Amino acid sequence: MQNNQTSLAIFENFKIRRHYDEPSETWYFSVIDIVAALTDQIDYPRAKSYWTTLKNRLKNEGSEVVTKCDQLKMLAQDGKMRETDVANVETILRLIQSVPSKKAEPIKRWLAKVGYERMQEMSDAELVFTALAELSTRQIAETMETKGLEENKIPAKKGGRIAKDARLALEQKTGKSVVTGQHFLSPHKTRLP
């Protein structure tokens, strides 16, 4: 996994290590940290022991949850980078079902919020550049005093070019794509009248 970001997220009083993989646009969470929060276990070795026991039980039951976990180096409590079991949101949700916990629903809501925040962070840039294109087009059209559809093509192209140039400059500086493609209907969906 390249081009990624590792950070901490807080669920109640638990620090959850997480990793965002940019190419796949996927969050990975430390399984032990999630288990600690689920079991309300502040003692890391006990949470790790719980996960080891649960992992063995799930393997014996033939559950695919364990096989869908990956390992990533994350900062451990001793300050060193250590291999840690991680899983994406879908796998974490399946794992939550395997742990009897009153915190299952709150953690599910928290995971949904984390995903939503990332989606908002990606789409905010798209909205800014769309607004820039619309504003530029409107202002150019006003200065040209255009009236008809044909006359408005020129300001529309110029306004679009302004937004495109700004977007490309930002993408070049950050190395990240602004356009996600997540806000369009697939060609197979039908629109309501």
Provide structural commentary.
The chain has 193 residues and is of the alpha+beta class. It has two domains: 4-101, Mlu1-box Binding Protein, DNA-binding Domain; 123-174. The chain is 52% helix and 18% strand. The protein contains five helices and five strands. Helix 3 (89-97) runs antiparallel to helix 4 (104-144).
Features:
193 residues; alpha+beta; Mlu1-box Binding Protein, DNA-binding Domain; five-stranded antiparallel sheet
Summarize the structure.
With 193 residues, the chain is of the alpha+beta class. The chain has helices at 31-38, 44-60, 89-97, 104-144, 149-174, and strands spanning 4-11, 14-21, 26-30, 70-75, 81-88.
Count of helix runs: 5
Number of distinct beta strands? 5
Strand content: 15-25%
**Share of residues in helices:** 40-55%
Top CATH class of the largest domain: Alpha Beta
Principal-axes shape call: elongated
Output the helix-strand order: EEEHHEEHHH
Biggest sheet strand line-up: 1-2-3-5-4
Characterize the main sheet.
Answer: 5 strands, antiparallel
CATH topology of the largest domain: Mlu1-box Binding Protein, DNA-binding Domain
Alpha-carbon distance between the two ends: 43 Å
Question: What would you report as the Rg, rounded to the nearest angstrom?
Answer: 23 Å
SS class: alpha+beta
The structural domain count equals 2
The name of the CATH architecture of the largest domain is Roll
* Overall pLDDT: 77
Low-confidence stretches: 183-193
